[in-house]
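Technical appendix A lists one of the benchmark inputs used to test multi-chain prediction within the project. The record comprises two sequence entries:
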Amino acid sequence: MAKPGLDGHDRGAKVIARALRDGGHEVVYTGLRKTPGEIVRIVMDEDAAALGLSTLSGAHDVLLPAICEGLRQEGLTEVVVFAGGIIPNGDHESLHEDGVRAIFGPGTRTSEILDFLEAARQRIEGGKPVGVGENSGWRWE
Amino acid sequence: MAMGVIPADLLDSALAGNRRDLARMLTLIENGGAFDIPEQSPWTLGVTGPPGVGKSTLIGRLISNWADRGERIAVLAVDPSSPRSGGALLADRMRMSTADSNDSVFVRSLATRNHPGGLVSCLSPMIDALAACGWSRIVIETVGAGQAEIRVVAFADRILLVDGPDRGDIVQAEKAGIMELADIVAINKSDIPNSQQAADSVRAALEVGGDSSVIVHLVSAHDGSGIIELLDTIESCPASGARDRLRVRERLLSAWDSRLLAHPRLNEVIDALETGSITLDEAVEIVGLSED
């Protein structure tokens, strides 16, 4: 669970991290104001299976593609990327095309995020593409 | 995550300096995998102490100074798993500000997965893997620990105990246990009141116990004061040979715990205990030495 860029609003990220923990996941929380490069490094060192990005600053169109591209460049193509925060509907399509598999807005139930991760896990087990570098139109809707 | 990768290739790649494959190898080790790693003599430091005294922040300071001195530092930071869900929230690395961008620093967060003693037995092969890959300083951060949690001696050759101010009333109690085993004590938070008093109390307690060889440092991970001096003391601290028997004992207990937790009939036995259909002695028999 990461907070990219200049964005000090971490209540949402902490709530999600806690909910995922309660759902049985091991969650590494990065803390605030991480650069795309730092987030890619953390994903690599922690060998994370999934990356959740929380952004409320309006810079998602710059930061999220940079992170997805960084993951692909480092060969971390199998990582499942999802996002949340304040991301207008009009921006969803391009982020999905960039490999972000789910975008959760305000009011999302935490159980839905657990359901998404379970669906992603089943796709991995079934050999279906779901990672950020795996060509797939699949998205959570 | 390393499906289809032959472990020997992964090991070779990690040994050649591939950071991603080192990380993947650590995951496989954590999940019970074994690698044919050449014999190592790693340099290890265990950092322990009560919750909230600033262990992670202090390690963050140490690793950035170490990196400036040309060392390559790996940190294995352990946080507790939830006994209810089995999940864990691992937040040690967020306090290590240089951890995410310095090529000379590698931080891996680990959950206890509810192993007794707060440390998992796979730490040993992980430490060997890191040493084989050229990490010259390996730091093991324990979960927030009380006085009886001494398992870190099983994995680290030097022990740094971190404590803080306004805990003076329990210093006496802490004389027994981990404080007896510490090579170095750091009283953190020298930027806030009563820290000098805490350092004095610890020194006095150690003197009463006859442990005058233990050096007590007053430091502030917040403003950086005393960190260089602490690092110099750590660097000049030899691997402790006096704890060899204790180390072996703790390793045995740790391996035993791992074996028990991985026992195929463990859940079945717990269910039977819960319903009262077997006694505790019978349960011990079932999950005893044999694997079946």
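The two ends of chain B are 29 Å apart (CA to CA). The domain at 38-243 of chain B is CATH 3.40.50.300 (Rossmann fold). Comparable benchmark entries are summarised in Table A2.
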